[in-house]
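Hi R.,

Here's the input for the S-adenosylmethionine complex you asked about:
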Amino acid sequence: MDMTRIRDRMVEHQLTRRGIGDRSVIEAMRTVPREKFVAPGFEEYAYDDAPLSIGEGQTISQPFIVALMLEKADLKAGDKVLEVGTGSGYASALMSRIARQIYSIERHERLALQARERFETLGYHNIDVRVGDGSKGWPEAAPFDAIVVSAAAPEVPSALKEQLDIGGRLIIPVGRSQEQRLKRVMRTGPAAFEEDDLGGVVFVPLIGEDAWTAAHPMYTATAPSAGTFASGPASLPNAQEKGMETTDKLPALPEGVLDHTEFQQRFWAVQRLSWIMFTLLLATCLLGLLGRGGPFSRQTLLLSDGSVDFPIISRWNAPEDMTVNFTASSEDRVFTVDAAFLQTFSVQGIDPPQKATFAREGRIGYVFPADPTGPTQIVFRLQTQLAGARRASIGLGGEVRSQSTFIFP
Ligand code: SAM
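And here is the predicted structure with S-adenosylmethionine in place:
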């Protein structure tokens, strides 16, 4: 397997397309071999767009969420950074490629030891790993330019805020199992902090003195079922191993962004707007074709004494022409309409005018002089009167046709 290519594809598909633009983060994600941070035998899943099990009921976070947190932490080359929740060590490894010194704290000894071994093997010498409760921070190494917390706290632990340098950034998921928000807390002065909401996320809980305790309802709250992991290797057998504390026997929560980044939301808004504009354009074209004056708005009725060009789509109170073409005839020609026609249209004028008009058997007849030399065209100037779908009949000589018309209100 060519991991470099797979890694590049992951960066392209999962990160840059979702709006991750920080060059140093992208470069680190291209460099650090994520496959070395997953359980042996699961390397092929390492670049999936999902969190994976790392044992002790914990997970290595989804690549996108890690990249998002690092981008929002705004790491600089000279920075001293604390990660709370080392887990596999992947996020700390990434940060070690960007910042000067990383302090990484993990409550599970086995995970901390494994992570330390990985850093040694990969030659990442600027990461200090410690086993302990990260909700209290790492006071001896403080202040930090950035703190990244990879597990969800009930609220922002005050110790972590205090260990931020002025100008320092703390990235932390805060909230209950299904309602976590990713927060960025920036220290702007000795006692001044600014807080931003970066979106909805789901993380495993931060367990500690200044975080959740085993007795907290977080543990009894409905966690996403193991089915959530069914398609990914998070349901691996090592997800829940022996010798764990009670809290670790619960299924691990997946980490990921639930409501989406600002970029994605803006992208979707533009996409939605484009669809609406496209639909409106399409409707306008269709109405243009079908609507009044459009090529499909008229119909020609062929009868034995001639033809009638009849308006089948119109607008209320609009002028319309109806053209009657008589074939050559040595007898007077007769055009008739019924009462429904005269309710739908009022006749404003006839050009050339009729010779006579009559009413017979519920129909009005218009008589035009004979012309044996050739066909004659008569234009009826109409005005639509009633909106909606209507039906009326017209006749040439003794032949009568019924015709529908739709008049837009
Ligand atoms: N960043 C990690 C990675 O890249 O693999 C993923 C971390 S995992 C989502 C969260 C980790 O936080 C778990 O390994 C868990 O044991 C750890 N954790 C939870 N509470 C902690 C605490 N109070 N102090 C230190 N680590 C804690």
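One thing worth noting: Residues 219-254 have pLDDT under 50 and may be disordered.

Cheers,
M.
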